[in-house]
Amino acid sequence: MNKREREAYLTRRAIEMRAFERALYARGVRFIAGVDEVGRGPLAGPVAAAAVVLPPDFSVLGVDDSKKLSEKRREELDELIRAEALACGLAFIDNRTIDEINILEATKLAMRGAVEEAARVLAAASATIEHVLVDALHIPGLDLPQTALIKGDARSVSVAAASIVAKVARDRQMRAYHRIYPAYAFDKNKGYGTKAHIAGIAAEGLCPLHRRSFCRAFGEVSLGRTEE
Predict the structure, then answer these.
(1) SS3 string of 88-157?
(2) Half-sphere exposure (CA, 13 Å, Cβ side) for 183?
(3) For the sheet containing 131-135, what is the strand order?
(4) 3-state SS, residue 195
(5) Long-range contacts from 200-204, C-beta under 8 angstroms, 24+ separation
(6) What is the C-alpha separation between 32 and 159, in angstroms, rounded?
(7) Strand partners, 149
(8) What is the predicted pLDDT for the residue at 219?
(9) Binning pLDDT at 50, 70 and 90, where does residue 226 land?
(10) CA of 120: how far to CAs of 5, 140, 226, in Å?
(11) d(CA 190, CA 43)
(12) Is residue 1 helix, strand or coil?
């Protein structure tokens, strides 16, 4: 695919990805928050969620499900999204809370926190979120109309933007944790159960970032030196 074909493809894809937003705009809805999460599957670290409110004339091409993009491209798009977005909200729920309430409830809690943060940012401009597009889930305790979209991060530009913002933010956090707990290669695996991560657990035990409820397969693994 040459450059011209690539640009044509991205333009078509952008039009497809705006279908849900266009339908809401046609009904008079002005401020739409796309919401997505990242980090439901790792053995360590938080689950993160982002809520992004884009302007109707959002012009960045290439916004898509974050899993389809390279790390470099996600970083580039994160900067562009934040520059054009009307509001962005982020929320992290830590591993201890995940163990206490389970990952699904922690994900919903993160999503609600992200929407509430985006709403506070938007309120500074005297505007209010009027509809929420969510990847797959219904967010409880949110007094706003919302639509759950299966595979929303590949179907809605707002949800895709949120998936990128959440992924970039969580990856940066895990790279920062790597500097504290280098044995587990968090800079590479971001907390997922890779061979290097499992080897780190075998050598050092669990660190304070590990989700005990996710690590039961390792049996009674003691806390490592990192918590002494």
Answers:
(1) EEEEEECHHHHHHHCHHHHHHHHHHHHHHHHHHHHHCCCCCCCEEEEECCCCCCCCCCEEEECCHHHCCH
(2) 19
(3) 87-93, 47-53, 32-38, 131-135, 146-149
(4) helix
(5) 201/43
(6) 10
(7) 135
(8) 56
(9) very low
(10) 41, 18, 37
(11) 9
(12) coil
